[in-house]
Structures are given as C-alpha cells and as structure tokens.
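Run log, item B.
One chain of 152 residues. Sequence copied directly from the ordering sheet:
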Amino acid sequence: MQPILGLFSNHVLLAALLGWFVAQALKIPIHYHVEHKLDFGRFFGSGGMPSSHSSMVTAAAVMTGATAGFDSAVFAISVVLAMIVMYDAAGVRRETGTQAVVINQILKDVLINGKKISDEELKELVGHTPLEVLGGSLTGLMVAVVYLIILF
C-alpha cells in the first residue's frame, strides 16, 4: 500500500497535474476575452490557449530537473519527451483540426439523395498554434517554479 500512497508525494507528478489544471482553467477567461462568451466547457476541451499538454510536460520536465538534477539522464529524457509532445500538439494535432474543418464543410455542402451524409460534426479544435504551445510551456514553467518556491 505504501508505494501507491507515494503518488501523493511525487512532486514531478503533482506539478505536472497542477500544470494541466492551471492551463485548463486559464482557457475559460482567455476564451471569454477573445470570443466574448463564457464557456466553462473549455475546461474539459482540447485545443485553445494555453496548451495544457505543453504546460503539463514542461512542469514535469522542470520538476524532474529540480528533483533529479538538470544534468541527469531522466531530466534529458523528460525534455525530449516534452519536445515530442509539443511538436505533436502544434503539428499533427493541428492538422487534424484543419482536416476536420474541411470535412465539416463537405458534410454541410454535400447531399446524397436529399439527405446529409451525417449531421454530426467532427471536433475541429484538437490542436494548437505555435503560440498556444508556447503559452502552455510558459504556464508549465511558471507552475513548476511557483511549486518549487512554495514547497521547497
């Protein structure tokens, strides 16, 4: 039982989860500022500013460096994985969103025998712009630094 309870004292994991939470929470006021619509559903949605993926992996990498050493192999691995996640968030996932926009337009325009192909739209907001990834990374960095200041 002791190893499972160790999760609650794992500073890398806690900072990463806090980074995700803060980024998701920030999406609500940022979305309101840009769209002038209050949407609490943004907390659970993907895409948008800041990238919670980037925030989470940056917070984890910074905390890994702070706890294991910035010259450790585990820190190097966490940075490499963070870079892959952020590249994917801005690249592959962004392209998926672009394709969803096009497919949704096709679904709206094309009729087969007087019926729409589908009335269910694909999720368009799945990826991030490079600015959103940077915003998420900076959010994760700030969360990890504040975490270190408060708890250490």
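Observations after the first pass:
- The CA atoms of residues 3 and 9 lie 10 Å apart.
- The first strand starts at residue 111 and ends at 112.
Flagged for discussion on Thursday.
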